[in-house]
Amino acid sequence: MASVFRSEEMCLSQLFLQVESAYCCVAELGELGLVQFRDLNANVNSFQRKFVNEVRRCESLERILRFLESEMGDEMQLPKPGKYPETPLPREMIDLESVLEKLEGELQEANQNLQTLRQNFLELTELKHLLKKTQDFFETEANLPDDFFNEDTSGLLELRSTPAAVAAKLGFIAGVIKRERMVPFERLLWRACRGNIYLRFSEMDAPLEDPITKEEMKKNVFIIFYQGEQLRLKIKKICDGFRATVYPCPESAGERREMAAGVNTRIDDLNTVITQTESHRQGLLKDVSAKLWNWGIKVKKMKAIYHILNSCNIDVTQQCVIAEIWFPVVDTGRIKRALNQGMERSGSMINPILTAIQTKMSPPTFNRTNKFTAGFQTIVDAYGVGNYREINPAPYTIITFPFLFAVMFGDCGHGAVMLGFALWMVMNEKSLLAQKSDNEIWNTFFSGRYLVLLMSIFSIYTGFIYNDCFSKSFNIFGSSWHIRPMYIDGNWTDAIVHGVSDGLQLSPTVRGVYSGNPYPFGIDPIWNIAKNKLTFLNSYKMKMSVILGIVHMVFGVILSLFNYVYFKKTINIVLQFIPEMIFILSLFGYLVFMIIFKWCQYDASLADEAPSILIHFINMFLFSYNDKSNRPLYRHQQEVQTFLVIFALISIPWMLLIKPFILRANHLKAQRMFNFGDIFVHQAIHTIEYCLGCISNTASYLRLWALSLAHAQLSEVLWSMVLHSGLQSSGWAGLIIIFIIFAVFAALTVAILLVMEGLSAFLHALRLHWVEFQNKFYAGAGYAFTPFSFKTIIEGKDE
């Protein structure tokens, strides 16, 4: 139980393993996940370590597995059993290498064949369309009038002869080009050939697939008529430059039809071969998919083990592996059992030897968590990992964090909506965990599901305290405000006090208005319709924020005492804790006393006579007691306040001067080198920071008041400007309007009040814990315990 409040007690031990059993012993420790290995070869290049070749082999296997997984695509799902496979033995790497290399070779060969077949299919398809378009062109040209070529039909050339003469005297080139390259291709032909060509093109209707990237392509068929060998060479070079594919096209119509028939036959045969090749490839991938996940886990485990072995030393006889490990003392028995299991699995007869090492190194910090406490521990560790055996703020944060959040977010309705979301995550956590989403925002919410659950419960509680639910109040017990019978007239009646009136100024100073017994729980609902509601809540929430803040800070100072007692720092107890408590209680503890005393001493009927606490607090520092307009709170107030201020001032040099000189004397007595200046400056900084921090931290807790009022006002604005206007509608049209307006109201409530305001309150509560609370007792200058664990490596939480 003590480990909840402090980090686990750690032990540094030296581990001696026989070379033959080292692999299996490390594997068992990886399954256990409770041992952190120190790198004993930090000065050795990673390429010069003992097991670098095994690591490279594992990386080669990982490359093959990534290739196989990429070939499967998104269509083929990998079955993932719930249990991880057992760590393979070193000799199994050879078998796994042969299997994976064979699969890689077969799949690469299938891919190469399939790519070649698809390339051939693409070329035949293009040739098929080219022959068809060319045939259509010649048939169209043969039916044109004789003066067709007297006009510039292509926009490129004027030829004065008949189509038959053109076909007889001119040569032509036919090919296929990508559609987006057609315009610059045409323009360059015109300029390079000086208009001495005739170009016709047509779009291919069917989209084509790139055999390599498998992306869709759109192409055009073109035919270019030219005259002379020089133009033919120019055209050929331009086609090559634009990566246009030129196909041989017969001049005779009969030969073109015969070639088209042959192309269609070859396409049909090619389709059959492609289908069979694809079927063979899919069969290979289907067989692989059943084992790929297990193979990946095995390779990750092997690679992790060899990385750990690379951090160990090997003695000069090459028979013993020496490692240094950190582990929790309470888990010593489990670690020894795991080592014995590894020895038995390897077949070795020599027991591993575990011996403790005395060291001056600071041990790592390990706070054991479960699924409930993990979110709160993450909040604490985000500020800084605690020093070894330093008191852990996480157990206290479980209560204080959601409570301070709820003080700023207090609303029964909003808390209930948040509670529903949190309960859904908690009740479906197993299925949601199995999905393993990559969405970082969702994973953040889900990992803090129990934090959200507590924040919502506390928000409902503070919502009842504020008597606030979507800016409306509950009238459960009936209002405690009444009108004395003798003062009932046309202006003040119980009906007005208990009804809704825009002119109602609810104040105990109004003649005849009185409050009976205090409202049983929370704030009287009558304040919801009072015109001076904001003035009342301002005073109430401001004082409440000051009280909560000072209590929270004093609790942090008290926790520092437990650190001093545990580490046996008596000097810190006498010269730091005691003056700190004197300072904060003499000034700010007294402020809390005045607030509570005034609440108890003055009721609503004496509101005009009540003195101002703020003025009293200011006069306390100025030693000014001549203000007759502000009556004292109690008898002998001047003497008490003077004593407290002097006592607080005495605590400052108590903190500042005594400790450095005592430390200096102790070090001089021990005849050690000692820098007194550094110690004095450090203590001076601590003293100034603490004294000024008490003032600034107290002011910082006023954010509880500010955000609570802002949340309430935003909620009221949404009610009055959105939903309230819809509720005034009637009839069938009003029903539709209410439905639409409620949807708008719900969307704005979720987006603004739940998400934005919730995130704002969360961040402010985070700051209050990190700065105002934890800095009183928590250094957070340690380093985390990072055990060698297969689970964290496989789940991607560790490298």
Structure description:
The chain has 799 residues and is an alpha+beta fold. Among the domains are: 114-273, Alpha-Beta Plaits, CATH 3.30.70; 374-480 and 517-531 and 703-776, no CATH class; 535-700, no CATH class. Helices cover 60% and strands 8% of the residues. It has 25 helices and 13 strands. The protein has helices at 2-5, 19-32, 52-72, 92-142, 163-169, 182-192, 229-241, 253-310, 332-346, 374-383, 394-409, 412-427, 429-435, 440-447, 449-466, 494-498, 533-566, 570-601, 613-622, 637-656, 658-669, 676-700, 703-727, 731-773, 790-794, and strands spanning 10-18, 36-37, 171-178, 198-203, 208-209, 216-217, 219-226, 245-247, 313-314, 320-328, 353-356, 481-483, 513-515. Strands 1, 2, 9, 10 and 11 form a 5-stranded antiparallel beta sheet that branches. It is extended. The two termini are 31 Å apart. Mean pLDDT is 85; it is low at 144-168 and 486-490.
